[in-house]
Amino acid sequence: MRDGPLTRWEHSQQRSHTVVDVPRIPRLRTRQTLTALLVVAVGSAGLVWLNTGDDPPPVSTRDAFVDLLSGPARDEPVKIDTTLYLPERTPAPAVLVAHGFGGSKESVESDARELAQRGFVALAWSARGFGRSAGRISLNSPDYEVADAAGLVDWLAKQPEVVQDGPNDPKVGVTGGSYGGALSLLLAGTDKRVDALAPLITYNDLGQALLPNSAGSQAPGASPAANAFGADGVFKRSWAGIFFAAGMGAAGLANPTTDATEPGTRENANTGAVAGAAPAGVPGGGRPAETADPCGRFTEAVCRAYAQVATTGRADQQTVELLRSVSPVSVTDKITQPTMLVQGEQDTLFGLDQSDATARQISAAGAPVKVVWYTGGHDGGRPGPELRGQIADWFDFHLRGQGEDPGTGFEYAVRGALRAQGSPSVRTVTAAAYPGLTGGQATERRPVAVTGDEQTVVNPPGGNPASISGMPGLGAVISGSSQLAGRVAIDLPGQSARFVSAPMTGQLLIAGATTATLRVSTVGGAPAPDGVVLFAKLYDLGPDGVRTLPGSAVSAFRVTGLPADGSPAEITVSLPGIVRPIEADHRIELVVSTTDQSYATPAQPATYRVSVAPGTSLSVPVVPGTRSSSAPPAGPLIGIAVVLGLCALAAVWGFVRRRRADDVDPDLADVPMVIENLSKSYPGGLKAVDSLSFRVERGQVLGLLGPNGAGKTTTLRMLMGLIQPTEGHIRVFGHRIHSGAPVLSRIGSFVEGAGFLPHLSGRANLELYWAATGRPLERAHFTEALEIAGLGAAVDRKVRTYSQGMRQRLAIAQAMLGFPDLMVLDEPTNGLDPPQIHQMRDVLRRYASTGRTVVVSSHLLAEVEQTCDSVVVMHRGKLVASGAVEDIVAGGGEATFRVDDPETAAEALRGVTGVHGVTIEGDLVHANLDGTPRSTALTVLVRAGVAVEQAGPRRRLEDAFLQLVGEEAAP
Amino acid sequence: MSKSSARQSENGHKASDTVRVGESVSTVHTDPAAIDEMAVAASRESTAFEPDGSVAGFRPGRTLPVRVELVRQLRRRRTQLLLGFLVLLPFILWGAFEFGADTSGRRSGGFVDLATASAPNFVVFVLFAAGSFLLPMIVALFFGDTIASEASWSSLKYLLAMPVPRQRLLRQKAIASGLLSVFALALLPAVALLVGVVFYGSGEAVSPTGDAIAFSDSLVAMLFAVVYISVNLLWVAGLAVFLSVSTDAPLGAVGGTVLVAILSQILDQITALGGLRDYLPTHFGFAWSDLIATDIDWANMTRGAFSAITYAAIFGLLAARRFRTKDITS
User: Fold this and answer.
1) Is the CB of B224 inside 8 Å of chain A's CB atoms?
2) CA A883 to CA A369: how far, in whole Å?
3) Which of B32, B68, B310 is nearest residue A768 as measured by Cβ atoms?
4) What is the pTM of this model?
5) Chain B: residue nearest A631 by CA?
6) Which of A150, A189, A449, A717 sits at a 20 to 30 Å CA gap from A289?
């Protein structure tokens, strides 16, 4: 039981209460520190364990080749490679996860697994022509890829793990990025069994994506990123090539592999390198080219169309029709399922205008649409974990009715133009609805005037050299580095016209596609047979001249039918859909150039005049966020209230404790000090004061005498309430002393060294000391006290320049301020020179003569003897003697002689009548003269031939005292 | 020989007594007439006292007024130097940007650009730069030093023997330190704002996420930021006071507190700790940056305030408990 936890606890409690003085620092501290560290270590280990405890739920998979019948007559068999990801609990709703172009079921493995962890049955498959699936790629043809997907829905209807809506109607959602996203839309439009969909970074019209024409005769739609989607577009040859190559087996660049930056994530300098490394591998499960067939695994129709466009740079009617038939635009008017459209802001392949069109079309069909623009895209990375979670939430709500309604709002991520190192650089703006949808409000557009004269631009022969806007497929590499993003753009002089706005007065947050009205005319005769091909870009021009092309995006447009006489045509151009805060002092720069590396441009040289149509401005879309009146979370607020309440309780409790009845003994009201049975012991058994009792009467100068370590200072500290007695008590004027006892105000003290603020003068110290007592100024008696200190001019010097004696005197003056009824001085003459000591005695005696009381401690007998009228002698904490000084000092008629021959002297003294008790002690001879005058005894000694060096009263006290000190010296 | 003389020399008293005593004989002495005057004045002074035993005119509730404590602290060189430094710091940073601009050349979109975009941004930058170390250190200095330095000067016992009730002493000192801290915390952004307005103009405040708020709104945001920082640093105050009553070495109290703040920030860097980092007292130290937004998210600031107040309450109560029973020996 000795070492039981409770005993030990009590022990340590006791210690902490009596932590005092010198032995405090070692041992105890380390022990407490160790305990604290142990508690912290165990606590955090527990928390870590708890935290790591929630492993993701297990997911099981099932691979299968599914035989499906597709084709216009549903009679063409095809083998589709599938993997079914099963959640912990089944049956559950299913989600089809379609992969991007050039990928396979392996490339969506992590997405499918995540969905399964969220509790969905996820089905990943390799689309026909990809991975180990059979068939040829027909670019999401309704008869093939879409029919395949519908076949998979049939298959899901037969799986026992999938929740069914009805016979042959599973509860199913569909998602996928890029090529897979388009499939999601096409499937939802053709198969009503799909209950919800979340297409990511995909196209509305493949024709417009690969052959865009952003020019129209009037401003396009009311939505923020609307594009004119004019016919006869400009061929986006670099992306188209990458796409075609991906179908041939060279996967990689076509789909983003790294996560896009999300709000709260930190911009990592390494992401660029990671993104750069990714395309080199084959994440999409690309397959080696197996034959010399120039069409690879594409169908004849697709192959022909690509060849036609790639060689001529223009799409013929057949190609346009093909592309349209395989695009979601062909079915969007039939989509009624809840749709979450996710599009990337870093996407030169399928820009924001594509999802904008899809949103408008689906909304017009009556489906609820939520639109999210995130920082990634084909150039910027796939959706990050937060956005993927949002997609899972979408299915959770729409397939299972679980969770909060994600609503039909609009969210877009804003990447800050300015970066503070390591701080989040992306935020999300939320609006209640995507503007410009059916029944909704149109997008707010702000006019921004740009200035610039009419400029002449030249299309070089062969379209070379060409301006550079971005690096298709490599955009992610570049956007990973904040230094490079949007800065690689190059406009060649002579090929580009520039129009600049005035510096912004405040931030302008562009969210969508700005439109500009341009005037274009030909120079030098007939217009080119291919029409005028131009590229429009919107730069953010910093005050220091740095130009940034947001999203590396460019709008290509073709103007046909320009008059040969050089008269201008006015056209409205939709600039690329971007999200970009244009900061104050930055300008917007509109650049119109004749070439772009990523596009097929006319080979014939030509010259045009370009200007901004007079009286028109850029029309910049802005989508203000709704103030989500996010009240502070209730939990912490309640917590704050509770903590403050507890503090108030603690304060009240402390107050009540202090209010405990003052312990007064009215009989002692006139006695300056009574000490009864006072003990103070320190941990380790050292008793500094042991059962001390004595009493001081009014008007006395009491000396507390004892060698160093006798417990004098400890006693005085207890008298001042600085330390708590272990036993017994002290009463001053009848009031029991405790820390802060009001009666302490009647005591003036100087205990163990002066305590002054070294940076203040002596006078300022005393004045501030008195001010701190809160007592009336006129009762301080500074003048008298300072005169006693007698510091002269030094009183206005800083205390740190004082000698110890000066501090001592100042401290005594401080103790004397207000003339306390009891003045306690600990070793007051330390550091004083003899004349000062003499004066000090005088001061103390005179002070006591005013009816006040003085207690002086000293280790010097002479000191006490000369100053005090009563004395208390202490040794090792105990009272040795007490009484009037003269009683103790000069005990009776005894005398002491210091002689050269003690034996003879003793003999001689013994011969004197009346003298008795003669003793020898070294060269001292003590004798009780008993009435015989000392001079007589002296004469006797001299006559006996003894040389007397010294003669005086015997000092018993000194004997005792020296003995004590001697013991100290030789323990 | 005695403990007291040893203590005196510890306190930086360098003057040699033997030299000083010779000098003091001529300058330091008590005029015998002064003793008479003292005796006369003392015998005239009343010795009346109150029922609670205190001398007439003494009220425990009037001891150590905040005003007096402020004077005691404000006349210290370290307080003056610190406040002076806070005034100087924005100018130093401005100078650094001016000097640095010549060498770096291209700086658009960088750290510097954010700071020099406008006056409010400069203030935000200064608060960011000072937030991790300087601001906690200021609070640690004012609170950690307050009791421990009195102990090291040996003046604590005279305050307690006055008597200033212990809890009152702790409270008054905490109030004074709090006022000084808040003043210092407000002084820095105020000077930074002034420097910013003069050199960078009163433009919009732009957050790292590209959000922009008007100058007038940003002034309110900065005011709230100072309020939040003051609340968030309460934990520093609590810990510093606790260490201050636990040790007689001011450096130990201040240094110990700063050390804990640094440790907490280092741990906060370890993302593997995940949600555990929410329990670190410095975790929400920069939540005030949420104020630089059109749509202010109060969640983190509320959590930060809760965390800080809880830590402050724990340390504060520990400090009060320890100081109540502590034996004062210095």
Assistant:
1) no
2) 102
3) B68
4) 0.71
5) B298
6) A150
